[in-house]
Design goal:
Helices cover 68% and strands 3% of the residues. By secondary structure, it is mainly α. It has one domain. The chain has a two-stranded antiparallel sheet with strand order 1-2. The two termini are 22 Å apart.
Amino acid sequence: MYSLALDGLAQEAGAILRPLIGTIEKLSYFRKDPQHVEQALDDNLPTEGKIAKVIDGEFKFLRDYLSKFASHSNFSFESLKHLINLRDFSLRIVQTYDEKVFRGNLEMVFAFLIISVMEGQKCLASINRLDQGFASYVSELRFRGFSVLIDN
């Protein structure tokens, strides 16, 4: 996702964000009921939508948006607007650099990476396997990262 954002292809990075959200929700699903791990081992997990309902997932709107506009071929305006110059409706073969958009995309990447690590920590803590040094390190990264985002 980071590399795609650097290359000006953040819309395409959404296709990767979608399964990352699914992974975060699966970690929560396993943590909330460890017997769900057996379902995964038997290759018998419910759909991502059903998992999200079971865990009261917070990302339904974003997951739906990404499914509609980033994760599948779609020829809607929302999916293609980054490829069209709205002044003359010509194609943008090369994506122009926009610092505000780039920064927002990197903030999103950072936020979801931190969310996934934090959910992993909760899983480890639920089975008494969370190393406190690691937990402190992640807490510091989270604090420093969000401090930078807020200050700028």
